[in-house]
Design goal:
Layout lengths: L2 H12 L5 H10 L6 H15 L3 E2 L2 H15 L7 H10 L1 H13 L6 E2 L4 H5 L12 E2 L2 E3 L5 E3 L6 E6 L2 E7 L2 E5 L9 E5 L4 E6 L5 E4 L4 E5 L6 E12 L8 E5 L2 E5 L3 E6 L5 E8 L2 E5 L2 E5 L4 E5 L4 E4 L4 H5 L5 E8 H12 L2 E4 L7 E7 L4 H10 L4 E4 L2 E4 L2
Helix pairs in contact: 2-4, 3-6
Length: 392
């Protein structure tokens, strides 16, 4: 496994977003000494990003490691002698697993804290701001609005012969019936600090980031056409007889069956469409480009479409996987994402810092921790109420 794939797998497990198969694969890889250096670098990065150093008593650690190793290879238990040698000679690999286990809240861990003398010198902190969550509003064809985060699971409403069902705390599904020719349009929108998933009438899946929306008919007829704002990730069900069209601002994406991400926030400098697999055509007026997997179309508001043929797909999809991922992002770009997810305003006190940020931040961290991470990386700011004040 290449270094990027290995560290991405660690990130997904730390963030609780990998599958059972990926977990088993990770536990197996952790036993291979060739990944020692990558693990050590990953631990250092996570401690820098979170500001926490995790500890567990040695006996508990040995027990956890033994359980992990045997669970990862139930048919080939690791010999006791080898396991003990491993525990004593590969401390940072042991620490990495503890960090992963601690992140799942399976065991209680202690975080190193400053001494009482140091702590007494710190200013009293304001109440922390929690990260966003599964929040959205469903607007029906007749204008009725349903707050999805407080609605009970199960059937919510009907639109013609289509039943709308809340599957769980973060997803909504449309079970389409026969069409009688009447078109009903629904809209699912997330506020700042919200995210949601929608299964469209044809089975296509849509993930909505914060401050985003999708408008669509409750039954698809000759074509499948939707309109989105903000940022969405889509996995479109293939159907050669019914092209899938996505309208975002003045951009149109034509799809048969594929996975892609659209970032079309009005306050961004450019709108981006990133293709994961399949093939799509992105058009703006007379300009139309065809993307291959791993490519990205960038639309500057005053320019033609440009194609990035070596796009950072992981960065584009980070929000869906529970991360903020920044690759040489300037301060305003970082703050725009934080403002949407934590539902806070951003105020610059003086000149905007001319810095660039490279790294990952977990979206489930509280805002105080995020501000600490930024401060460790040269971006100084403070929280006042629901405002982040950025200092030069």
């Amino acid at each position: 496994m290449n270094p990027t794939a290995f560290t991405d797998l660690l990130d997904r497990y730390y963030n609780r977003s990998c599958t059972e198969e990926e977990k088993a694969q990770l536990f197996q890889l952790l036993q291979d000494p060739q990944y020692d250096v990558l693990l050590k670098e990953w631990i250092a990065r996570v401690e820098l990003l979170t500001g926490d150093i995790l500890e567990l008593p040695k006996p508990a650690a040995d027990s956890i490691l033994a359980s992990i190793f045997n669970a990862s290879s139930p048919s080939k238990p690791i010999p006791v002698a080898h396991r003990v040698h491993f525990l004593r000679t590969a401390w940072f690999r042991y620490a990495a697993i503890l960090l992963l286990i601690a992140s799942t809240a399976t065991y209680i861990y202690q975080t190193r804290r400053p001494s009482m003398e140091t702590a007494s010198q710190q200013p009293i902190s304001m109440p922390d701001i929690l990260p966003g969550g599964n929040k959205a509003i469903l607007t029906l064809a007749d204008g009725r609005r349903i707050v999805l985060d407080s609605a009970a699971n199960g059937a919510l409403a009907s639109q013609g012969d289509t039943r709308i069902i809340k599957l769980d705390a973060g997803s909504l599904a449309y079970n389409a019936g026969s069409s009688n020719g009447e078109v009903w349009y629904n809209t699912v929108s997330t506020p700042k600090g919200g995210q949601y998933q929608v299964v469209l009438p044809d089975g296509s899946k849509v993930w909505l980031n914060a401050a985003s929306s999708i408008r669509f008919p409750t039954t698809f007829t000759k074509t499948r056409e939707v309109t989105v704002t903000g940022e969405t990730y889509m996995e479109v069900t293939p159907d050669a007889t019914k092209p899938f069209l996505v309208n975002a601002n003045d951009i149109q994406v034509q799809v048969l069956g594929t996975s892609f991400n659209i970032n079309a926030y009005q306050d961004e400098n450019a709108w981006k469409t990133t293709l994961v697999d399949g093939s799509i055509r992105v058009g703006r007026g007379k300009d139309i480009v065809t993307l291959k997997p791993g490519q990205q179309a960038l639309v500057n508001k005053n320019d033609f479409i440009k194609v990035n043929r070596d796009a950072n797909v992981a960065e584009a999809l980070a929000w869906k996987n529970g991360l903020f991922t920044f690759e040489e992002a300037d301060v305003p770009a970082v703050m725009r994402q934080l403002g949407r997810w934590y539902d806070v305003d951003i105020v610059y006190e003086g000149a905007i810092p001319a810095r660039q940020f490279v790294g990952k931040i977990f979206r489930e961290m509280t805002l105080n921790k995020v501000v600490k991470v930024l401060g460790n990386n040269g971006i100084n700011c403070r929280i006042e109420g629901r405002t982040i004040r950025v200092q030069p």
